[in-house]
């Protein structure tokens, strides 16, 4: 027996502009590997993730590896690659972009139908006016309120709290084999 604990792999996914890259950058204690490129179509911002974001941190003594996915559907093959072996999922959606909620739901279904992992929905941009509250997003997704958390993805305290809640869910989940 060794007391080496393997890093826990967590995936951060969601539509374009949900805050995935921001979330990984806010949390990572090591320099983030990011693969942003100039967007080739009009997605409302200049740069977008084309392969993944990668960051690491320790939380409650557990080493975590975070993989942020691209948001654009044309990179959906990367979702499967990145989700291989994942033990948790953070599905981010921008609280001021309700037009993206259906797409977020599709991404969530796509991933959880392939890997039945514990997940939390994070509703970003809570620092801005006129955003959907997490409870309303929970209703929209048909999820229990405790599974939908509001956050400002640029705030380390918010981001760490969300991950801590996901770890709690993960510990509570029956062992997946
Ligand atoms: N005020 C505020 N801005 C945010 C928040 N989350 C993300 N942003 C901003 O929203 C923009 C888009 O965020 P990204 O992290 O690039 O989004 P993404 O999900 O990685 O997008 P793709 O890689 O294109 O799919 C950036 O300018 C962020 O600074 C938030 O909670 N509050
Ligand atoms: Mg990104």
Automatic annotation (TrEMBL):
Q: Does the keyword Nucleotide-binding apply?
A: yes
One Pfam annotation reads ATP_bind_1
Sorted alphabetically, which Gene3D superfamilies does this protein's record hold?
A: P-loop containing nucleotide triphosphate hydrolases
Provide the alphabetized UniProt keywords: GTP-binding, Hydrolase, Nucleotide-binding, Plasmid
> What's the superkingdom here?
Bacteria
Name the InterPro entries on file: Gliding_Motility_GTPase, Gpn, P-loop_NTPase
To which protein family does this belong? Answer: Belongs to the GPN-loop GTPase family.
Q: What is this protein called?
A: GTPase
Q: State the organism named in the record.
A: Deinococcus aetherius
State the organism's lineage. Bacteria, Thermotogati, Deinococcota, Deinococci, Deinococcales
């Amino acid at each position: 027996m060794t007391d080496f604990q393997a890093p826990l792999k967590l995936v951060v996914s969601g539509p374009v502009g949900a805050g995935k890259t921001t979330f990984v950058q806010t949390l990572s204690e090591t320099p983030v590997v990011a693969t942003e490129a100039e967007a080739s179509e009009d997605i409302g911002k200049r740069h977008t993730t084309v392969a993944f974001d990668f960051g690491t941190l320790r939380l409650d003594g557990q080493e975590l590896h975070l993989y942020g996915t691209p948001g654009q559907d044309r990179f959906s093959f990367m979702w499967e690659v990145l989700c291989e072996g994942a033990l948790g999922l953070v599905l981010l959606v921008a609280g001021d972009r309700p037009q993206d909620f259906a797409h977020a739901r599709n991404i969530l279904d796509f991933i959880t139908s392939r890997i039945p992992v514990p997940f939390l929905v994070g509703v970003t941009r809570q620092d801005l006016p006129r955003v959907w509250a997490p409870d309303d997003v929970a209703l929209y997704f048909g999820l229990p309120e405790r599974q939908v958390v509001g956050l400002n993805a640029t705030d380390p305290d918010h981001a760490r709290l969300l991950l801590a809640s996901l770890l709690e869910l993960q510990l509570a989940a029956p062992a997946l084999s």
